[in-house]
Specification:
Blueprint (H helix, E strand, L loop, with lengths): L1 E9 L9 E7 L17 E2 L2 H9 L5 E5 L7 H13 L3 E6 L7 H4 L4 E4 L9 H5 L4 E7 L8 H8 L7 E5 L9 H11 L2 E3 L2 H4 L4
Parallel strand pairs: 2-4, 4-5, 5-6, 6-7, 7-8, 8-9
Antiparallel strand pairs: 1-2, 1-3
The protein binds iron/sulfur cluster.
Iron/sulfur cluster (SF4) binds next to loops.
């Protein structure tokens, strides 16, 4: 598989915020979001078997597959998730939601965090009805981020327990975080911080 990096860290955002995990960051993305803070170029090439060997020794038994956009390597991704599931690991995935994950694979995932980008072809109705899917919306000014009034309308149709609002920004002070906090409070949904950004960790 084409990867950016494999590393152990603590999840800084979304429903698993604060939890330690092995991160498998796959390279490449089908979107080009202005200001994307992820280096999308591959620097590693590891087989599914090599990744499973790496994950098997993990003490905390949790793996977060992220990117880039992991579903661009769907065939091998399905094999990887199948193997992690057989090892008994808790599997999380982060995706922009533009590609469907087959049901058999999705059922093996503990938590899928789908972050629909404004103007993209994310299939929101497909994801919104899955009980292991959380939806994370980024509030901000760039074109691909959501506006306050758009989220107010959109979220009225969704299960609020599985909706998260997070601020755009990769600067340490996260000066826009208060807007995301206030909107989450007003709409009765979850607020996500970006702890790794605040603490200058990855
Ligand atoms: S979908 Fe995510 S990884 Fe892809 S360009 Fe946008 S912010 Fe970057």
């Amino acid at each position: 598989m084409r990867l950016i990096e494999v590393f152990r860290s603590i999840q800084g955002e979304g429903p698993a915020m604060g939890r330690p995990a092995l991160f498998i960051r796959l390279s490449g993305c089908n979107l080009r979001c202005e200001g994307c803070d992820t280096d999308l170029k591959p620097s590693l090439d590891l087989s599914v078997r090599e990744l499973l060997e790496r994950a098997e020794g993990e003490e905390r038994r949790r793996v977060i597959i992220t990117g880039g956009e992991p579903t661009l390597q769907m065939d091998e991704l399905g094999d990887l998730i199948g193997g992690l599931h057989r090892l008994g690991l808790e599997i999380h995935i982060e995706s922009n939601g533009t590609n469907i994950i087959p049901q058999e694979t999705l059922e093996r995932i503990h938590c899928a965090v789908i972050s629909p980008k404004r103007g993209s072809n994310c299939n929101l109705p497909f994801w919104a009805c899955k009980s292991n899917v959380h939806l994370k919306f980024v509030l901000g000014k760039p074109d691909w981020c959501w506006r306050d009034e758009e989220l107010t309308e959109l979220i009225s149709t969704l299960d609020r327990e599985r909706v998260w609002i997070m601020a755009y920004g990769a600067e340490q002070g996260m000066k826009n975080a208060i807007d995301a906090w206030n909107l989450a409070l007003r709409l009765g949904v979850n607020y996500s911080d970006r702890l790794h950004i605040r603490l200058r960790q990855r």
